[in-house]
Every structure is written in C-alpha cells, then in structure tokens.
Design a protein that fits this description.
Blueprint: E1 2-8, E2 14-20, H1 24-33, E3 37-43, H2 44-47, H3 50-54, H4 63-78, H5 83-93, H6 97-111, H7 116-121, H8 129-141, H9 144-168, H10 170-201, H11 207-241, H12 244-256, H13 260-281, H14 286-297, H15 300-314, H16 319-324, H17 331-343, H18 346-401
Antiparallel strand pairs: 1-2, 1-3
Amino acid sequence: MLFVYQAIDQEGNSKNGTIEAINVDVAISSLQRRGLVISSINSAEESGSVFSKSIPIFNHVSNKDIVILSRQMATLFEAQISALRVFKLLASESENPTLGKRLAEVSESLEGGSPISAALEKHSDVFSTFYVSMVRAGEESGKLDEVFAYLADYLDRSYEVTQKAKNALIYPAFVIFTFFAVMILMLTLVIPKISGILVDSGQEIPTYTKVVIAISTFFVNYGVFLLIAIIVGIFFLIRFTRTEVGKHSFDAFKLDTPYIGDLYKKLFLSRIADNMNTMLASGIPMIKALELTKSVVDNRVYLDIIEQATEDVKGGTSLSEAFSKNKRFPNIFIQMIRVGEETGNLGEILARLAKFYNREVVNAVDTLVGLIEPVMIILLAVGVGTLLASVLIPIYNISATF
C-alpha cells in the first residue's frame, strides 16, 4: 500500500513524499528510522484527487514521456550520478505528475535497498515487462547508461512509426464521418420536403428518384431503430473483440484486409526486428528476447507465431527455420536472418531489417493517404451530387411543363 506523508527532518526542514508499506504502522516505523518526525500520513487512495481517481486520462503516461525519461537517465548515468539521486532528481523535475509520483516511489524503493529493475517492476502501468527486462540486463552487465540509450532510441522509433500510422487515418476518418453525416441530413431533412413537391405534382417520377425517396422514407420512419441496431451491434462486437477468440479473429482480419493488412504486416515485422535487435545488443539471450517480443507485438496472430518459434528455438531449431514455418514472415525477412546467423551478425541484420520495414511503413502510410484523400473527396462529391440530381432534375422537368 502506498502512503503520502509530511514530516520534519533532524535539521528542522519540512519533507513530504510517498512510501510503500504493508500498513500505516510499518510506514511510520520506516520513516522514523530515517530520522523523520511525522506530522501527517495518509493512504494515497484517500489523499488522491477526485479527478485522478475517476478520470483515468489524468493518470496517463505517454510513450513520449518514457522516451524523454530514458534519454535523461542515459545522460545522468553516463555522468556517473548515483541511481538514487537520478530518480529523485527526475521525480522533482518531471512535468507529468503521475510519472513524477512513480519516480518518487521508485526512489523510495531504492532507498530500501531494492535494485532498479525490481523498483520499476512495481509500476507495470508505466514501465513494461520489456522495459524492466532491459534494465535488469543493464544492471547485470554494468551498462545502464547504454541500455537507457538503447531504450530511448527504440521507443522513439516505435513511437514515431506508430504515430505516423495513427495520424494518417485521422483525415480519412474525418472525411468518412462528414460524408455519412451530410448524406443522413439530406435524406432526413431535405429529401422528404422536396419529395412531397414531386409527388403532389402528379408527374412521372424517374426510377432513380424513387429509389432515393424510398431510402429517405426508410431513414425518416425507421432511422431510430437502425441507430439502435447499430449501437447494439457495436456493443456486442466490442465484447466479442475482448474475448481471446475475438481478439485473434480481429487481429487476423486486420492482417488480411487489402492494403491496410500490408501496412500492419510491415509495422509488426518492424517491431519484431527492432525489439529483438535492441535486446540482443543489450546482452539478453535469444529465448528471453523472443519471450519478451510477444509483449510489444500487439497482435495475437504474430504472438502465436512467436510463441511457437520460442518453443522451436528451445528445441534447438535456428531462428530463421522457426520463422520459416509460417507464411506471415516474408521470404526476404527469413533469408536475411539466416545470413545473420551464418555470419554471426544477427544483431546488425535485425537492425537493418527494422530500418527497412520502418521506412516501408512510412512509405506505405504516405501512399495510402495520397490515395485515400482524392477517393474520399470524389465519393463525397458523387454521393451528394447524386442526391441533388435525383430531386433537382424532376423539379426542373416539372417547371419546364409550365
């Protein structure tokens, strides 16, 4: 349990911070052993603000925050500053309140004699299993500064590629939303008024206009039921995607979707190569590197493939042969790894593969955006133009008879 305290040290200076303990008595005893006179101590849950407890977004620590933190730690460790001082300094200087709190808790654990990796492992909401394992490898090899530099570079590359892919989908999503919003507004507000004029005129209505009027009538009379059906469908779809079968099916669907699937494949191959290169460069064994790679792939299909590959490598199979058993890995990927194994430069080959697929992802995103923008604009123009033409042409014909 985490406690927030205010105390006075032996020199009369005011101190405040957090301490982790089984109960309040153990927390008080630990603080008193440090020579502190406690003025107040409360559970962190009780002292937390209403906003921080009820709105999770205020507790968010982004990948960008971790990238900056890792670079700062690499610099400070390279300057041979003690771990305790590093974390205390970063906790006091952090602009993110949640991250600052976690770093303060890490420094408390370090004061209690805990190694850095064990202290970070207590905060899995901020530091991933991959991150902790890399730090542990750095502790064992005595190269913490290099490990934090590796982590910063890796997370920076991963963040850049992921954000590139996400940002590329914002504009198409906005255009699609606008398209459907305009069509629904016209079908429910504009078309019904104009269709009344056409029907009352007694003139022959073209077939395409009848189709538009029928669709408009359906939306006006049954639009609420359609909306309810869509909401219910989305609800059950979300529930399904949270099951193991649903997650696997959804991840497989993303990979098999034309164009989008190719982008996802390159993104996951980039993550696998980059992640394994980073860990192997830090001295983590192959099998451990494969096990940890599962936590960063974020796709059930590739996760299953890596799990099977891990078992094969444990049985004495080479990495390239283990990957070659599944068609999700392209032949060039496998051949490059085989060359790395034969030459003893697997880490360098993985780094090249990661760089290649990172570049491929960026190019694929740029190409996709370049294609989507004109297609969406054309669809929007055609859709709205068709609706207008279906009602304006009959009105023009009616006016021409007078």
